[in-house]
């Protein structure tokens, strides 16, 4: 009935499209980052732009900051999201209504969440006003700087407002999908609640959490408008830094932007590779009788 | 595990955390001034908000551009992802795992990075500064999500129903319209919703590929955020949210009607 090549014909348009856009974009960045300044493809091969970027202390600060922000946001949102999902499971009908409410933060664009975070956490925001009424501060300047700050707290608050609900929704779906029976059997056999969580629930949640961690990390690592609007000029995240170099009138700066882009892509792709490696390892482990 | 009472309290707190920023956004939109220590705006009026919305051709242009680009992105994404999802979800063939991995990659690489790599090619092909060009770039970032959603649905649905229909003599087009499409429609709706939202919230991709000629809602909004005009920014944010919800509700309604009229049942 089905021809041998049918699946290949069905995936061909998608693969071709991504080759012409996504793969081309990465390839173009690599080529541009490796030619000397005599212009586009006519230039000669050189590593000099890489050595310029890698010797710049600013680049390493940006890299460290970008990765730290992404790792911290990913850890907090996945832990809080999973805990919230457990609470929702135990809260019955209220948990189900919260799941509907959580759709809103997931749909809201980051840009609007940026405005909300400024409303609430800036030095004249809602929280600062509550502090004033509570007699904790006398004027706005005494409120700690939580947006545009050096520690990227404002940036992380935006990620958390969107990502905790995202993780909670998916984890809650997974938890509701499994039968109570497993937990009941475990309890019958004398398992403590801690054992039930670590031996029953967490293994079932693992694929979901690995997936959400990947997505939350990738977003926090590559976000643009959030660090642009809420960041400090003291340091820039890598995507913002590379964009500012790209729009610089100096053509050498543009080449350096391409170098940073290649390094960003390499880190992202390595992470995707790691994800698939881990996923495959877990699958093999489970099939091998581990679970 | 701790009792249900504590858990309900946690859930209620979470609801509060979700709601407070939204309420504060609404209050900013209707307050003319809201000086420091007051917890509620002293002067409340919707007149200014209405004046911002009424007779504002630039805002109308931004809404139209956003909608047009998001609809184009949704159409491109579904056209490309639908057949691929069928192949990857139903058939197992040499290379399918590699293709699944490859199609996930655009999620991982930052949008700004990919857009910079495409920028000069878009200028050379004349696609920069056009709706089509912007929608093509948005499609790159919507595809991985839409493909995953559709693939999952095809995995669940399988091919048995289609084979049965074909066995009974239905030809390809008829099988697609009466069997495949109704079965995967809920998944297609989720994929369309996702693509629409991703396109609607794009900032840097539209900014670079649009080249200043295409102003969507996020581009219209950002200068007001940078300028600290919170009242104006809040009003435009609400326009953003209302437009998104209206478009998504309309999509949902159309799918429901399709089911009702064609099959006399609701999904």
CATH superfamily of the largest domain in chain B: MetI-like
Q: Helical amount among residues of chain A, as a percent range?
A: over 70%
The counted number of beta strands of chain A is 0
What's the tally of helices of chain B?
11
Write down the overall mean pLDDT of chain A: 87
The biggest sheet of chain A amounts to: none
CATH class of the largest domain in chain B: Mainly Alpha
Q: How many domains make up the coordinates of chain A?
A: 1
Q: Could you walk me through the main structural features you see in this protein, from its secondary elements to its overall organization?
A:
- The complex is a heterodimer of chains A (291) and B (267).
- Chain A is mostly helical and 291 residues long.
- Chain A has helices at 6-33, 48-54, 57-90, 93-107, 110-121, 126-133, 153-177, 180-188, 193-222, 225-230, 238-246, 251-290.
- Chain A has a single domain (40-248), classed as MetI-like (MetI-like fold).
- The longest helix of chain A is centred in the C-terminal third of the chain and has 40 residues, at 251-290.
- With 267 residues, chain B is mostly helical.
- Chain B has two domains: 4-45, no CATH class; 56-263, MetI-like fold, CATH 1.10.3720.
- Chain B is built from eleven helices and two strands; from the N terminus they run H-E-E-H-H-H-H-H-H-H-H-H-H.
- A two-stranded antiparallel sheet of chain B has the order 1-2.
- The mean pLDDT of chain B is 89.
- Classes of the chains: A mainly alpha (291), B mainly alpha (267).
- At the A-B interface, helix 1, helix 3, helix 4, helix 5 and helix 6 of A face helix 1, helix 3, helix 4, helix 5 and helix 6 of B.
